[in-house]
Amino acid sequence: MTTIELISLVVASIALLLSVIATTVAVQLRRSIAARIAQRAAALERTAPDRRPLAAVVVNPTKVSDTSPVRAALERACRDLEWREPLWLETTAEDPGTSQARRALAAGADVVVAFGGDGTVRRVASVLAGTGTPLGLVPAGTGNLLARNLDVVTSRAAEIAPDDVEAAMRVVLSGIDRRIDVGWISVERPGATQPEPEECFLVMAGMGFDAEIMANAPEALKAKVGPAAYFVSGLQRFNGDRVRMDIVVDGVPHRRRVRTAVVGNVGRVQGGLALMPDAEVDDGYLDVLAVGPRGFVGWLDVAGRVITRRTWGDQRLAHWRGQRIDLLAEQPQEAQIDGDPIGEAVAMRVRVDEEALVVRVSNRAPRRPIIARARFTRKLRS
């Protein structure tokens, strides 16, 4: 081999070696860059805000004996519909829902779910009213009257099933928003010099026989037999005395001797019975029913009128509608707000806040015909 050939071989070998080294370095460099890019992307993903919507659940744990399976059902519904894991906020006897709702708003919840009975619902609603943040309903109480009147999923047995919870939660996450009226009520106690601060109500509030039923229905019996517990309580107080009461509707006084007077934002009670058939949850008015029968025959007449929806009546059963309603009793009476007994009162002063609350309902729920409000307006003018 000549010197030139040897030099050419050495140069070629060096060139090949340099090419291999360059290729290896380039591959390692690309891998390193790719790894750094992946690390930075992962870091950004970890620190970037989660843009998925958030549901906060205000739950009354006394309504559910074992929260683990129902909580798992709620989380599954959120995961399937691409929502974040829900914020879980439990109520207590001392703090039954208002501060939990405020925490939900502070956390930026897109919907605040009341998981409990009508009492839990109204406390959450008292915070959400006027904010525009929707209220979701996962019914777990005895009556669940707001959910029933809005045709939200609500099957209540002795114990709510996870399947029912998940179905209700899917309505909350995928339904539509509906604005409803909110009632505000100020109670005057016997011997007090000032009325109490206003409280929110969404269903019904009243004084007399209905409140006695609520106050004396044992919790243990309600847990076992549901709304039938109120029937048992009512039979025990069937023959009570009537009391004189002034009912002032938009400034117009009406004096009656009554067993009970009820102000309603909705019309249906347990069993789908239309206690106030003209009541609508979004018409800007409240309905008031004064019930004053005497004896068994009088109660039969009242029952017949309610069943046949003839509640525009006489001394036994009278019905008015208005935006401001005062109930002024001659003697202290048991009182209730949305089914929660609140003790004795001598007066309840009530007003309506039209369409102040947004509620998430099923997009298949029936809606009130638009002509209903026009029909009621004609009735008022007549």
Percent helix: 25-40%
CATH class category label of the largest domain: Mainly Beta
CATH topology of the largest domain: Tumour Suppressor Smad4
SSE class: alpha+beta
Which word captures the global form?
A: rod-shaped
Low-confidence stretches: 369-382
Cofactor: Mg(2+)
Keywords: ATP-binding, Kinase, Lipid biosynthesis, Lipid metabolism, Nucleotide-binding, Phospholipid biosynthesis, Phospholipid metabolism, Transferase
Domain DAGKc: 50-189
GO molecular function, one term: kinase activity
What would your notes on this structure say?
This protein has 11 helices and 14 strands. The chain is an alpha+beta fold and 382 residues long. The chain has 3 domains: 1-29; 55-174, Probable inorganic polyphosphate/atp-NAD kinase, domain 1 (Rossmann fold); 182-354 and 369-381, Tumour Suppressor Smad4, CATH 2.60.200. The strands form 2 sheets. Strands 5, 6, 7, 8, 9, 10, 11, 12, 13 and 14 form a 10-stranded antiparallel sheet that branches. Helix 7 (209-216) packs across helix 9. The protein is rod-shaped and about 135 Å long. Residues 369-382 have low confidence and may be disordered. One of its GO terms (molecular function) is kinase activity. Its cofactor is Mg(2+).
